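Input record, target 12 of the design panel.
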């Protein structure tokens, strides 16, 4: 058998498998977007996190902060985000119980007394903006 035919058959088979996998991914994304429901937390392709408030055709209304609603195309929704689960066993230290010293910016001067700060840059004054 001719090696050129074998190479062509392998190339066509590889292209067919790649397009099949891409088609499955597109179908999965389309079914995910068709099943969006109010109350789900999602992330858009641009990285905006929000809660689905409503779905009307190809438009999804997201609430990113309380009272702020924006409208997005379904195609812009990248994935459903699971809200983080808070671990109840974590010991969170109370700031009042902390033994670290408070640092106040006004406790010390920014420069030593009697010190002058010299300008830097164009010292001969030729390039004035």
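The sequence produced for target 12 reads:
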């Amino acid at each position: 058998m001719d090696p050129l035919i074998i190479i062509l058959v392998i190339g066509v088979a590889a292209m067919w498998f790649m397009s099949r996998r891409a088609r499955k991914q597109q179908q999965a994304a389309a079914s995910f977007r068709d099943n969006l429901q109010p109350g789900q937390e999602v992330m858009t392709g641009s990285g905006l996190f929000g809660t689905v408030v409503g779905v009307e055709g190809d438009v999804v209304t997201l609430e990113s902060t309380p009272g702020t609603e924006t409208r997005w195309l379904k195609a812009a929704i990248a994935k459903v985000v699971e809200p983080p689960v808070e671990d109840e066993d974590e010991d969170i230290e109370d700031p009042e119980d902390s033994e670290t010293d408070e640092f106040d910016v006004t406790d010390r001067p920014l420069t030593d007394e009697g010190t002058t700060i010299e300008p830097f840059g164009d010292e001969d004054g030729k390039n004035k903006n």
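The chain has a mean pLDDT of 80.
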